[in-house]
Input
Amino acid sequence: LSPIVELNVGGEMYTTTLSTLKKHPGSKLAEMFTGQPKLRTDSEGRFFIDRPGTYFKYILEYLRSNQVPTQCIQDVYKEALFYDIEPLIKQLEDSPQIFGELVARKQFLARVPNYSENIELMIRIARAEAVASRRSSVIVCVVRTEEDAARCQDALNSLDMDKKSVVKFGPWKAAPSISDLLDCIQMDVEAKGYKVSFQPHIAEKGFRFKSHDFFYKFLFTWW
Output
């Protein structure tokens, strides 16, 4: 390989040196340019990498000068994982954005039983009710403790609705509150491309408990 390398990364063109690309020998990026070339070339003979080219400039800047990016942290982190550049991965994981997501929020959600499955269930229910409608709603029951879970079950028995359509989150053993979990649910549903909001669900008269202690309505807006 020539010591000067021309790259086409997802349609973005870069010129760098072979030594820069191989700076971290254990990385996937270095492996691409070790021994026989393992990449296809475009019509101009540039090595082609089928990844988002916009963020490769941050990867390249780190390889050249050890400068950790301060922009597009989440996206650069994904690329660092793909290219398996371990020193950059570790430094990005120390950034507030990645640390907060991986160490704080994700660790909390890991303690909420069936969290990811419940997010998918909410979306399936909302989509099933969206026929010929601008909005559809999903009722969510959120309980933080085992005691609340028992009370919630009593409340569910008093609800005049299809109990199978109520998605239950909790209980969990961690510091975040119910409002924190509700924010996480909204954040993760919106991350999938949906427009959603939530509010306390007010049940009909005669309900045995204050419904807003447990029940919330998530409103999906389709158009």
Remarks:
- The CA atoms of residues 7 and 132 lie 49 Å apart.
- Strands lie at 4-9, 12-17, 47-49, 135-142, 166-169, 195-200, 215-221.
